[in-house]
Amino acid sequence: PRVLIVAGSDSGGGAGIQADMKACAALGVFSTTAIAALTAQNSQGVQGIHPVPVEFVQQQMRSVLDDLGTDVVKTGMLATSEIVEGVAAALRAGAPGPPAQLVLDPVMVSTSGHVLLQEDAIESVKAKMFPMATVITPNLRETQLLLGREDVHTLEAMERAARDLCAMGPRWALVKGGHLRDVPPPGGASDAPAATDVLCD
Predict the structure, then answer these.
(1) What are residue 133's phi and psi, to 5 degrees?
(2) What is the DSSP-derived secondary structure letter of residue 115?
(3) Strand order in the sheet with 198-200
(4) What are the backbone angles phi and psi of residue 7, rounded to the nearest 5°?
(5) What is the β-pairing status of strands 198-200 and 172-175?
(6) Residue 40 DSSP SS3
(7) 8 A C-beta contact, residue 146 and residue 138
(8) Of 174, 176, 6, nearest to 74 (Cα)?
């Protein structure tokens, strides 16, 4: 399988395109890339962000799609509404053959709290990318920002949120609960970390 990753570069190697490529390699998947933003970051946080000009993001995508092709497009940090809309346009233009599956990770805020997606770009993601998405994979904070509400703190609220996100256009919504509070780990092992995700199809 081939995956085209359209996302930001993490100089620290712990997230972004670097982490996606590691995951692809571990699973035996061939990955190509289109870098949408450059970040200066490390284990302490994000020190700077430089969005890539949208025309060059599209050129990277065309170079891959017109020659190597892809089975899946996975998007991550897109930074600005202009880049979101440019990526959506490039996906609509597509390449010969069946349309690729779109995995949309709506990266908005780093683990350290740094804003990675401009506020006006949130609406662009919902309007331009959601209708094309096979699956979206927001974490709890991203889910709250997408839905404009702060009440996604329980498993029941995650289930409601996943249904509401599905109603906005994507085929599936996977709400990631790694930051969910007060959820007992599997098997009752209180000292074991647990993450509860919710999938709506």
Answers:
(1) -80, 135
(2) B
(3) 45-51, 30-42, 2-10, 72-75, 101-104, 135-136, 172-175, 198-200
(4) -165, -175
(5) antiparallel
(6) strand
(7) yes
(8) 6
Entry pTM: 0.89
Place of tokens 């085929």: 171
User: Sign of torsion, CA 6 8 9 14?
Assistant: negative
For 178-199, what is each residue's pLDDT tens digit? 766 655 555 555 555 567 899 9
Do the Cβ atoms of 46 and 116 come closer than 8 Å? yes
Assigned token pair, 76: 């991550």
Pairing of strands 72-75, 135-136: unpaired
Q: Output the six-digit token pair for 67.
A: 């020659």
pLDDT tens column, 93-139: 876 666 789 999 999 988 777 888 988 999 999 999 999 999 999 99
Burial class (CB in 10 A: 0-12, 13-18, 19+), 66: exposed
Number of Cβ within a 10 Å radius of residue 171: 15
> Which distant-in-sequence residues (6+ apart) come within 8 Å of 30 by Cβ?
1, 2, 3, 24
Structure tokens, 57 = 């993001």
Give me the amino acid identity at 84.
V
Spatial contact of 74 and 4, defined as CB atoms under 8 Å apart: yes
